[in-house]
Amino acid sequence: MSFFDGFLSFLIDMGWPQWLSAAALASVSLVATLVFKHLLIRQLVGASTHTHLYYDTLVLRSLSRPLGMLLLGGHLWVYERLCNHMGLSNDILGYWANTAVQVSLILGLMLFIDRVVRGTIEHYALHSVVVRNSQGVMSGLVRGLVFGIGVLVLLSSLGVSVTPVLASLGVTSLAVALALQPTLENLFSGIQLLADKPFQVGDFIALESGEQGFIERIGWRSTWVRMLANNLVVIPNSKISQSRIINYNYPSPEMSVPVEVSVHYSSDLVFVQKIAKEVAVQILKTVPGAQAEFEPKVNFHTFGDSGIGFTVVLRATEFAEHFVLKSEFIKALHRRFQEEGICIPFPIVALNTDQENALFRQVGQRSNES
């Protein structure tokens, strides 16, 4: 205490009151420790950036504000100790000094935990689309939970009974839950979608209600679907969680593209199959978005009303590409069939009137006889 005693004696000799001298000494000590803390953390953070770890830098950066708050509360206690050393302390000052230490410790711990958790969410948001889309809500929930528990601990440390507060929170939570039942239903449905992962951002899905499109955003309350017409449809998560979903990107974005064709009954089916396969191979190799390595299939399956039906199976790299692939194949096949003289029949309905004419003649004869 020789340095403190000498500094205090110097201030008192200059005519400063004892309490002001103690406050000046505590302030000088606070500024010095804050500057030292800032320089130390700055050096440690600079050294940690050269490592491959992430959490060492996060923890060091998260310590800055909590340490500053703890130093502030600690120097209030130092001021009380200086006043006690000079015989100026009393029970009230001692109570407030100890309270300041407790409050600064609790608040500093709250800030540290909040910063570490939010930094963790930000880190995982860089690598996960799901976390990135729900980053705001997750950060808000975490901050509310951390500060809520911190305030309860702070009130308890100050001697305030938290039992009535907890009871009030319980009644309030029940009322809020009843009032926000649809919102909470969508919230828990969003949590279910994020955990179950039936689709991800960028997947093309189709719902049983008829909506089709690419997943643009998966939120906690709703999911945004970008339709093929480039319009956004915002669907509540509760509707999606209860719907049957077709995910065209799972297990692979590649998909088969069947094309229905019909030829005349007089056609040479072996030749038709050969021509259709040649056209399909050419289209798969030239059209962007087609799976060039896929071997197309040509299968006859129906004796139809106006011709023999068959299916040509192509393959697209993803759902959005199958429209162009199918269109280009139909144009190329139609042109090739015209060149080869293969007839694609019109829908024809033949009426057999022989039986009806015979019946009409019999009716006429009976009428004449009568």
From TrEMBL:
It comes from Parathalassolituus penaei. InterPro entries: LSM_dom_sf, MS_channel_1st, MS_channel_C, MscS_beta-dom_sf, MscS_channel_2nd, MscS_channel_C_sf, MscS_channel_TM-2. Residues 143-181 form the Mechanosensitive ion channel transmembrane helices 2/3 domain. This is Mechanosensitive ion channel family protein. Belongs to the MscS (TC 1.A.23) family. The keyword Aminoacyl-tRNA synthetase does not apply. It is found in: Cell membrane. The chain crosses the membrane at residues 20-41, 53-72, 92-113, 141-159. One of its GO terms (cellular component) is plasma membrane. Residues 184-249 form the Mechanosensitive ion channel MscS domain.
